[in-house]
């Protein structure tokens, strides 16, 4: 597998980099776009060309934006409106900008129609699941489970926990390890799994940490934040896989 990764990256070094779109957020004042540098850096380090998508634009432009890219990274952010899956807001929710929610769902619809390689991270994974008719646990501390872990960031200390990977999955096979150590910064997670999706990664307490649609070139998502750990090969790997699939699609 390592030879395959190296050969792919060597090939891409003499070709145009695949363009990877990245969803972004907005500041608390609602006047400035913002995106953690780590997302674009992860795409660049994986061999892609990052392109940030400004979402305060008319939805009629979504198809033109998707025309520009070979793959898509759905990034993290605040909490989806739970009415999407038939629930009321939890009192601890941090509400997403409704414009971003509408934009991300419209982009995902276009990506799915074109079968564009797509990777979701944290909120991005939750959007992909809810888009497919799934639901979320809105506040993990409320969810009783065996050997409960703290998945939220509750101190300045970087929390990590093991994640078991399904090696028969696209992402698991590419990473090549049955278990990795992942960071954890989330209070929500997948509850009901959406249509056509299968779980490919779990935490020791049963929390779903990743899923995919195996019928797509790449429709994969993780709950942790690999973009913050790209110095570790297993966490750069999801972005390398995205860039690899995007390169294949663009030929």
What does this 3D model show about the protein?
With 251 residues, the chain is α/β, with parallel strands linked by helices. The chain has seven helices and 13 strands. It has a domain at 2-139 and 214-250: Rossmann fold (3-Layer(aba) Sandwich). The protein has helices spanning 2-13, 37-45, 62-67, 98-114, 123-131, 170-175, 233-250; strands at residues 19-23, 25-26, 33-34, 49-53, 71-74, 118-121, 136-137, 160-165, 179-183, 189-190, 198-202, 208-212, 219-222. Strand 5, helix 4 (98-114) and strand 6 form a beta-alpha-beta unit. The two termini are 22 Å apart.
User: What is the CATH third-level topology name of the domain at 2-139 and 214-250?
Assistant: Rossmann fold
Can you tell me the CATH superfamily of the domain at 2-139 and 214-250?
A: Class I glutamine amidotransferase (GATase) domain
**Average pLDDT taken over every residue:** 92
CATH domain class of the domain at 2-139 and 214-250 = Alpha Beta
CATH architecture of the domain at 2-139 and 214-250: 3-Layer(aba) Sandwich
Q: Which sheet architecture does the biggest sheet show?
A: 9 strands, mixed
Note the run of SSEs as H and E.
Answer: HEEEHEHEHEHEEHEEEEEH
- Whole-Å distance between the termini? 22 Å
Q: Can you tell me the residue ranges where pLDDT is under 50 for at least 5 consecutive residues?
A: none
- Radius of gyration, Cα only, in angstroms? 17 Å
Task: Tell me the number of strands.
Answer: 13
User: Helical amount among residues, as a percent range?
Assistant: 25-40%
Please give the count of helices: 7
């Amino acid at each position: 597998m390592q030879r395959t990764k190296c050969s792919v990256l060597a090939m891409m070094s003499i070709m145009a980099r695949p363009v990877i779109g990245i969803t972004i957020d907005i500041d608390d004042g609602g006047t400035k776009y913002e995106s953690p540098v780590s997302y674009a850096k992860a795409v660049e380090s994986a061999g892609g060309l990052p392109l940030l998508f400004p979402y305060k634009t008319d939805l009629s432009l979504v198809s033109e934006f998707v025309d520009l890219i070979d793959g898509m990274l759905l990034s993290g952010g605040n909490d989806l409106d739970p009415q999407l899956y038939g629930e009321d807001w939890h009192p601890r929710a941090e509400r997403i900008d409704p414009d971003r929610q509408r934009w991300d769902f419209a982009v995902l619809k276009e990506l799915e129609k074109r079968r564009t390689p797509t990777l979701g991270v944290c909120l991005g994974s939750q959007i992909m699941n809810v888009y497919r008719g799934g639901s979320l646990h809105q506040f993990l501390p409320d969810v009783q489970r065996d050997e409960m872990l703290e998945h939220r960031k509750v101190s300045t200390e970087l929390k990590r926990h093991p994640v078991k990977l399904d090696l028969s999955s696209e992402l698991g096979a590419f990473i090549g390890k049955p278990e990795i150590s992942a960071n954890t910064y989330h209070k929500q997670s997948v509850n009901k799994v959406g249509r056509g999706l299968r779980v490919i990664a779990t935490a020791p307490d049963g929390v779903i940490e990743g899923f995919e649609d195996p019928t797509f070139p790449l429709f994969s998502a993780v709950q942790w934040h690999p973009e913050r750990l790209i110095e570790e090969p297993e966490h750069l790997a999801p972005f390398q896989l995205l860039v690899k699939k995007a390169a294949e699609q663009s030929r």
